[in-house]
Amino acid sequence: MKYTNIGYKMTEVDELDVNPLFRALQKEYLGLYEKAQENCYIVCIPQTSSLANITVTRKLAETHILKPSPYFKSQYQTLESSAKVVQLEENGKEFQTVEGFSEKHAVKILNEELGYNQDYKPYKILILECPFDPSLKVRATRNGTPATTNSFSAFQTYTESCNFLKSFAEYKMVLRQVDENLKQFNANYMILKDYLSEVQHKLKSLCQQVTQDCLKCSQYAKQQDPKFRETLDYSVESYVMGTVHSKVFSVVKETYERDDKLLFTKSRQLHNVTAEQLGVNKKIACPLPQAVVELANLDGLRTPLEKLFCLKSTIDNASQTIQNHLEENRVPPVSTAAEENYCLTSDDLIPILVTVIAQAQCRYFASNIHYIETFHWASEANDRGNLSYCLVTFKAAVEYMKHTSFDEMERQPRLKREISLEELRRATNGPKAADLSSPVNGSSVVQSGASHYDRQLERISQMLKESNDELRKTEKKQSNHTSSIFGESYERLQKPAEGLPTRKQDKEDLG
């Protein structure tokens, strides 16, 4: 089962693989879950911390599976009882209980996932702030802190991983031994580009051994905590791969040098091509500067995990920007936010990512994808499909770029000036203090009080104006010269030949 993250960023502590209600739907109440998938009902999952001290029953599961109301738009009945009704607010970000519950209250939507049933039809999985029944919310918080101990999160960078592992005094001897092993690896181990799988096997085995050694030194409570185990897996991998990055990644770049050059050439061809030109629905085709700037950092990152999270963040930024674009361009009161919510499919996402890759101008993009795929294995046991889905989607975008000819698009006239990566960074980060009083291209910079989006539009509008003025000048010059329909040969006959005497006509010639 694949899930696509749409519209909201993933929370670190409320993952579906540790959520008791979602796990019950996949085991004890599988029939309910299959019914929801088959009918494309909305599956609502209260976040893990809100379910502390609550027994997951069939009634609880049925109460959080919603089917459309036959009476009112944006209202839903629970599978448990048609008398229990909730309404999706116009902003699409929270539910309001309408009837059938002990009292009325609002329930925020923290996250939205998209799943596909056996017929490849989409259905939604919504992560809620709390259960629909307010009495359950009180019961969960009455004892203070939640019963679960999901207070750990995945550390992405080498520095964060080092600090996390070294914060446990009991790991001191384990880390001393792994440091010695990695020192020997960097000094003596020879990596051949045709044998990267051997290197992958060696480093993966080392990580697994280090993780086991750390767990043996840990307290029993941490050993039993799946969230801590996940964090430890990620941290050990980043610690190991961060130490050997320079040695390993240089060979990866050598191995995939040809693919890197091909993608970079394709990126230059596609730099000014829009998503709409690649077949994306014009409803969601909009500039994605935040996603471009995020992806442009990929080459400078160190561990496979932080590179993978960079890909995920790029998709998150693109999805959020598209959702904001839809929200800003809807026409109230004709439509509601829920009705205008476009379902971003893989068919749309792949060409959108192609334009983001092209504008980011990463020199080692193919190498980065293979580096992540080969040397990131912590998600094999912990990821429920979210991170792996991001990687697979980017791989599909790369294959699309490699095997598609964009020569015709490259020859199309470009009516707007090329926007550099630095200009994109300025568009998303805002002008520096020194730039606020100085004119840019003949016009003043937007005031610092304006939003990032406004500043970006101001710069792009100025570029379009300059390009349009230049185009008009060119057309005016061309219009001043009238060409003969007979071509250049006739025009040359109309001009006197150089070097020949000209004959002056007078009245005698006429007689």
Strand content: 5-15%
Main β-sheet: number of strands, strand sense, barrel status?
A: 7 strands, mixed, barrel
Number of strands: 10
Instruction: Tell me the overall shape.
Output: flat
Report the uncertain regions: 1-14, 138-152, 333-340, 413-418, 430-450, 481-487, 489-494, 502-511
Residues in helices, as a percent range: 40-55%
Q: What is the averaged pLDDT score?
A: 77
Distance, first to last CA? 100 Å
- Across the major sheet, the strand order is 2-3-4-5-6-7-8
Helical run tally: 22
Which structural class best describes the helix and strand composition? alpha+beta
Radius of gyration, in Å, reads 30 Å
Structure summary:
With 511 residues, this protein is of the alpha+beta class.
Write up what this structure looks like.
- The chain is of the alpha+beta class and about 500 residues long.
- The protein is about 50% helix and about 10% strand.
- The protein contains 22 helices and ten strands.
- The strands form two sheets. Strands 2-3-4-5-6-7-8 form a seven-stranded mixed β-barrel. Strands 9-10 form a two-stranded antiparallel sheet.
- The longest helix is centred in the middle third of the chain and has 30 residues, at about 225-255.
- The radius of gyration is 30 Å and the shape is flat.
Keywords, separated by commas or semicolons:
511 residues, alpha+beta, seven-stranded mixed β-barrel, two-stranded antiparallel sheet, 10 strands, flat
Task: Give me the secondary-structure topology.
Blueprint (H helix, E strand, L loop, with lengths): L2 E3 L14 H7 L3 H10 L2 E5 L11 H6 L1 E4 L6 E4 L6 E4 L5 E6 L6 E11 L5 E7 L5 H8 L16 H9 L5 H17 L7 H22 L2 H5 L1 H30 L1 H13 L19 H8 L7 H26 L7 H4 L5 H15 L4 H11 L3 H4 L3 H17 L4 H5 L9 H9 L9 E2 L2 E2 L7 H28 L8 H7 L12 H4 L1
Parallel strand pairs: 2-8
Antiparallel strand pairs: 1-7, 2-3, 3-4, 4-5, 5-6, 6-7, 7-8, 9-10
